């Protein structure tokens, strides 16, 4: 699966004050580089962020709802518990980011990379994902309910106790990820139908039916 990388401008304006940049550009951020910032209490809707890089930034008590992120890189950022409900993400890379409890429900994700991220208990429910790659990421307890997944992959991820109700995983290879304790509707007509798992994972899934295995 080929993920299109963010298309960044050749030259980005470096800024140390995101609030000033927002005020200057009427709530739009285009072609900016933000580094080593603590971004506190940004609360807005319908923000447009294009061709930007956020590196080593932390976001505290921020709410950026129903906004658009296009051609954006988040590298080693902390977005824990940030409210990003209803946002659209297009050609965005999250690399080495902390997304613990981040709310991305009702999102639109196109050509997105989550690489080496901590996403415990993040909320992706009711989202539409197309060409999304999760690599070496911790998604323990994540909410992935009522999602539409098209060309989505999980490579060496932790999906322990992830909530996958009403999300079809057909065509997705889970064999090198940890899926113990995942929450699904049932095995007889489950979200896992058509997915690929390892033999050891299959044994765990059989136990979910209450079947005892005697070697």
Concise description?
The chain has one domain (13-207): Pectate Lyase C-like (3 Solenoid), CATH 2.160.20. It has 2 helices and 13 strands; from the N terminus they run E-H-E-E-E-E-E-E-E-E-E-E-E-E-H.
How would you characterize the overall build of this protein?
With 215 residues, the chain is mainly beta. It has a single domain, classed as 3 Solenoid (Pectate Lyase C-like), CATH 2.160.20. Helices cover 8% and strands 33% of the residues. The protein is built from two helices and 13 strands; from the N terminus they run E-H-E-E-E-E-E-E-E-E-E-E-E-E-H. The strands form three sheets. Strands 1, 2, 3, 6, 9, 10, 11, 12 and 13 form a nine-stranded parallel β-sheet that branches. The mean pLDDT is 89.
Q: Mind sketching the topology for me?
A:
Blueprint: E1 13-15, H1 18-24, E2 28-30, E3 32-35, E4 38-40, E5 43-45, E6 48-55, E7 58-60, E8 63-65, E9 68-75, E10 88-95, E11 108-115, E12 128-135, E13 148-155, H2 199-208
Parallel strand pairs: 1-3, 2-6, 3-6, 4-7, 5-8, 6-9, 9-10, 10-11, 11-12, 12-13
